[in-house]
TrEMBL record:
This is MoaF protein. Residues 6-108 form the Molybdenum cofactor biosynthesis protein F N-terminal domain. Residues 148-189 form the MoaF C-terminal domain. Gene3D superfamilies: 2.40.128.20. Pfam families: MoaF, MoaF_C. It comes from Klebsiella pneumoniae. Transmembrane segments: none annotated.
Length: 218
């Protein structure tokens, strides 16, 4: 008798990753630290650190967490205070003075209940979760911007999220990758390319020119 496969809910997956997870250490930012994101064709966006738990985004407060991907690459993640069920992730390159803003939006109940097959039939994206990428400068002067990349296509990478959770990703093209769980709560699961949509971004970790700044956080 064959048992029916059951997908693990995202919450259970997060619980599996959590114990002794390979998380980057939190980067502390001093109160008053601020970043202005200049985006072509729109008003500048302002982020101000109020304290170790709260920041201000365009004058509205939100909880936040920051990590340093490299000495001059800062990742700031926070709930969007201007939208429900939404988040913003800011990846700031302090050497090149640019940033990538990722606006994430969870679907409403009606969209979440629409299954993948129905979405395909209706010509909708495979996921109801929306992500929007915006490239910005950290000062008003013109300069290089981040961008999308195809450097991962064709690669097979293994990721160890914790002592018990290990996955393999296979990057297929600009929009899809496949994965399998090698160890952990989803061991044995393999996800076809139709289920995972994605975009690849290149984050420079060195600079061939321009002003080099010393981070004021640790």
């Amino acid at each position: 008798m064959t048992s029916e496969a059951v997908f693990i809910q995202v919450g259970a997956l997060a619980d599996g990753f959590a114990p002794h997870g390979n998380l980057l250490a939190t980067a502390s930012l001093p109160a008053g630290e601020n970043f202005t994101f200049y985006v072509a064709g729109s008003e500048p966006q302002q982020l101000v650190i109020e304290d170790e738990q709260t920041l201000s985004w365009n004058g509205k407060r939100a909880p936040w967490r920051a990590t340093a991907l490299r000495p001059d690459i800062l990742f700031i993640d926070f709930l969007d205070p201007e939208r429900d069920n939404a988040s913003i992730s800011a990846v700031c390159n302090l050497t090149q003075r640019n940033a990538t803003l990722v606006y994430g939006q969870l679907p409403d109940e009606a969209a979440a209940r629409l299954d993948a097959f129905s979405r395909v039939e209706q010509g909708l994206p495979l996921t109801a979760v929306d992500a929007r990428f915006v490239f910005a400068r950290l000062d008003a002067q013109p300069g290089p911007l981040p961008g999308f990349t195809d450097a991962l296509i064709g690669m097979r990478n293994q990721y160890t999220y914790s002592p018990t959770e290990r996955y393999e990703h296979i990057y297929l093209n600009d929009n899809f990758y496949a994965w399998q769980c090698l160890d952990g709560v989803e061991k044995g699961w393999r996800m076809s390319i139709a289920a995972i949509t994605c975009r690849w971004l290149r984050i420079s970790i060195c600079s061939s020119g321009g002003r080099k700044s010393s981070p004021r956080w640790g």
